[in-house]
């Protein structure tokens, strides 16, 4: 199962303790996935569609709690994608449905369609959290933390997208809104922000999984960086040693190492005998011992002598 599905499963099972939060969450779910149906005799109905059984169950439970209305659930199998069912929760047209639609913010007080979050619905912090949970359940997804960090909520209502981003900002989340075809996408990109958002919505198990995956990923990146760094250093050491050996052999062949000052001669001989060791190790082998910079200095001298010999040979 994807991380998104696991997170939604966890969130779908949460039933808020307080009525204010339950109504806020229902309003979000209906705003995200609901549509108003008008029957032949101009009577209104409400239909909410979701692909998650858990979400459908939640919508049904909440609607029944707040509204004494005929509700109906229709399960359909998606034509092409075999595994996903589609659940449609229908609130049949009946007197009083208009009030329900107004309370949930689908219609404003004048009976006009409204994209905004209804004023007063999410004044409290507890309700803002519940609203985000509902919005995420209605149209959210979150990437597997092993990949790129990304959490989004998509809606076809621009004002609603802006409102959701506004609610997120109340929790110090720097939500951004972009468009994708006819959709508006509210999204978060940073791991810290996604963790905060999961926490706000109440997805605590998902949050822990996300944290673990992130720590593991950071550690793996760090190890890779170290390995790359060491490999790079090792390559440098090997390249330098090869160059030094070439120079020393050139001097040996053209003039003989015995012509060199004693300290240089000894260093050159030890390098020939120990082609694989580092400069520091080479310094330890010398009598008396020499530091890395001193050995480095002698190697430079040897390279200079070799360069001079090469230059001479060309004329
Ligand atoms: Zn509340």
Automatic annotation (TrEMBL):
Its domain of life reads: Bacteria
Q: Keywords in UniProt for this one?
A: Cell cycle, Cell division, DNA-binding
Taking every annotated instance into account, which residue ranges of this chain make up the domain WhiA LAGLIDADG-like?
129-220
Q: Which SUPFAM superfamilies match?
A: Homing endonucleases
Residue intervals of the Sporulation regulator WhiA C-terminal domain: 223-306
Could you give a single Gene Ontology term from the biological process aspect?
cell division
* One example GO MF annotation: DNA binding
Matches recorded under Pfam families: HTH_WhiA (PF02650), LAGLIDADG_WhiA (PF14527), WhiA_N (PF10298)
> What span is annotated as the signal peptide, if there is one?
none
What family does the entry list?
Belongs to the WhiA family.
Origin species: Desulfofarcimen acetoxidans (strain ATCC 49208 / DSM 771 / KCTC 5769 / VKM B-1644 / 5575) (Desulfotomaculum acetoxidans)
Where is each Sporulation transcription regulator WhiA N-terminal domain found? 19-106
Entries under Gene3D superfamilies matching the protein: Homing endonucleases
Q: What function is annotated for this protein?
A: Involved in cell division and chromosome segregation.
Q: What is this protein called?
A: Probable cell division protein WhiA
């Amino acid at each position: 199962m994807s991380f998104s599905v696991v997170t939604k499963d966890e969130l779908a099972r949460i039933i808020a303790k307080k009525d204010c939060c339950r109504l806020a969450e229902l309003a979000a779910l209906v705003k995200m996935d609901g549509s108003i149906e008008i029957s032949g005799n101009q009577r209104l109905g409400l239909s909410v569609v979701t692909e998650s059984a858990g979400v459908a169950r939640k919508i049904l439970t909440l609607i029944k709690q707040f509204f004494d209305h005929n509700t109906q659930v229709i399960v359909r199998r998606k034509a092409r994608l075999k595994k996903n069912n589609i659940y449609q929760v229908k609130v049949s047209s009946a007197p009083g449905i208009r009030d329900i639609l107004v309370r949930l913010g689908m219609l404003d007080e004048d009976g006009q369609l409204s994209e905004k979050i209804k004023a007063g619905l999410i004044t409290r912090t507890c309700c803002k959290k519940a609203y985000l949970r509902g919005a995420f359940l209605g149209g959210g997804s979150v990437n597997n933390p092993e990949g790129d960090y990304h959490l989004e909520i998509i809606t076809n209502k621009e004002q609603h997208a802006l409102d959701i981003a506004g609610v997120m900002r109340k929790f110090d989340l720097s939500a951004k809104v972009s468009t994708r075809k006819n959709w508006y996408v509210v999204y978060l990109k940073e791991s810290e922000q996604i963790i905060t958002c999961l926490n706000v919505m109440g997805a605590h198990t998902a949050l822990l999984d996300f944290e673990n995956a992130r720590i593991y990923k950071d550690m793996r990146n760090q190890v890779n960086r170290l390995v790359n760094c060491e490999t790079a250093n090792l390559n440098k050491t090997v390249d330098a040693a090869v160059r030094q050996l070439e120079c020393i052999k050139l001097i040996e062949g053209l003039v003989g190492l015995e012509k060199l000052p004693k300290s240089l001669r000894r260093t050159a001989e030890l390098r020939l005998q120990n082609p694989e060791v580092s400069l520091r190790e080479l310094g330890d082998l010398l009598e008396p011992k020499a530091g890395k910079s001193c050995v480095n200095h002698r190697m430079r001298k040897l390279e200079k002598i070799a360069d001079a010999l090469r230059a001479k040979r060309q004329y």
